[in-house]
Amino acid sequence: MQVFKFGGASVKDIEGIKNLTKIVQSHGTNQILIVISAMGKMTNRLEDLTKAYVKGDENCHAIFEEIKAFHFDVLNALFEDHQNPIFNEVANTFVEIEWLLEEEASDPADYLYDQIVSIGEMVSTKIVAAYLNQVGVFTIWVDARNYIQTDNNYKDANVNWEKTEHEIQKHLPSFLDKGIVVTQGFVGGTSENFTSTLGREGSDYSAAIFSACLNVESLTIWKDVPGVLNADPKWFDETEKIDQLSYHDAIELTYYGATVIHPKTIKPLQNKGIPLFVRSFITPEGEGTKISNVNIPLPIPSFIFKVNQVLISIFPRDYSFIIEKNLSNIFSLFHKNKVKVNTMLNSALSFSVSVDDSDKIDALLKDLSETYKVKYNKGLELVTIRYYNQNTIDRVIIDKTVLLEVKSRHTCQIVMRDKVSS
Ligand SMILES: Nc1ncnc2c1ncn2[C@@H]1O[C@H](COP(=O)(O)OP(=O)(O)O)[C@@H](O)[C@H]1O
Ligand SMILES: N[C@@H](CC(=O)OP(=O)(O)O)C(=O)O
Which of 42, 99, 262, 311 could pair with 204 in a Cys bridge, judged by C-beta atoms 3.0 to 4.6 Å apart? Predict the structure, then answer.
């Protein structure tokens, strides 16, 4: 039994869906569960729709019609027979959201977000399952909300592993005996039967949850890159593919922000010893990267690049040391404001952190300023180098001013900005 995960980039258009079909056909149709994300950047557009709805913006209707039209264009291109029940199924899915949009947005925004944004995965999986059926690959469409059981922490729901494992193990093996199971990434269901989501880019994590609960042979995530590279090709030229990666290094890389895999993906797989393959849907014959229980360090230095960083420096007003009591208070304020620390460094009288810039930062700075003197710089870059050496550091700081550098045995983190030319 294996699990495949196809993300938004792989199903962004009809060619993508046809390519997915070829990949699935080339693997035989026995005992495969496929987890699929919303098409292309559809989740971003659904976020726009939710914002417009919550604000009562008049754009709301136009965005909804655009999203519907996009999916019906895909249906028209994939299915010649307009009597195919998929047309009604997709229409009915949109009607559910239409009813919601007709009412005033009185429910909490995060709850509304999940009810609306999840529709991207509902519709994409219905379309792909119907297309696979049309070309003779028998599929069973499964609603992930009945299996991935979560709390009601909407937008970033926590999985109830016991219930989830129970539901998956009770029903899915018999479905997998009959055909390919197609289900959604990113979405879950609460005990009150509302839709929840697992956090942006969470489909990799969904695939790991299904994999762990079914104890599969392997999980393969199909991406637009040949595998895990030593840097994001969007930022770095001359990247190299890593053939084998330990779970440990994979967790470190994703924790520091390597966006090729969602950070929560590795743990459930590591716990069960299930290998994760990252392979290219563009060149599916390539072997990709195998992430497993090997005990080998990364063969080459790896770079993780983050922009839009804010470096916050915090000083006790009374010149007291940065000791446990202050640190505990400072961390509780980061926790309260849901701001994740990307790197940190403390001295006797100051504590500095780099965080992603977002709409949460103003509230955090206000909370910190009540007790501490606070200084901050925006618009910075953070580079993390795993298995660094001086050459690699020199390479990334050319024409940069370094504001903070933190080193451990294997990892170096540098917060920097472009040098201002004089
Ligand atoms: N170390 C890395 N190796 C490969 N790709 C990376 C790495 N770090 C970041 N990426 C980025 O991850 C992208 C693939 O992930 P993503 O766009 O989330 O896929 P999907 O949404 O289709 O699942 C690549 O296009 C690449 O830009
Ligand atoms: N569609 C969701 C979930 C997801 O993981 O998508 P992708 O696999 O395209 O990153 C998002 O964009 O956040």
Answer: 262
Q: What pLDDT, in 10s, does the model give residues 352-403? A: 999 999 999 999 999 999 999 999 999 999 999 999 999 999 999 999 999 9
Q: Is residue 280 part of a domain?
A: no
Query: Are 50 and 151 within one domain?
Result: yes
> Is the distance from the beta carbon of residue 317 to the nearest atom of ligand 1 less than 6 Å?
no
Task: From 121, 204, 259, give the residue whose CB has the most ligand 1 atoms within 8 Å, as the site to mutate.
Answer: 259
> How distant, in Å, are the alpha carbons of 10, 85, 394 from that of 73?
18, 16, 50
**C-alpha 388 – ligand 1 centre gap (Å):** 22
- Bridge partners for 161 per DSSP: none
Distance 379 CA to ligand 2 centre (A): 26
ipTM, 2 decimals?
0.98
Please indicate, yes or no, if residue 396 is contained in any of the structural domains: yes
* 385/413 Cα distance (integer angstroms): 6
> Which residue, 371, 370, 387, 313, is CA-closest to 343?
313
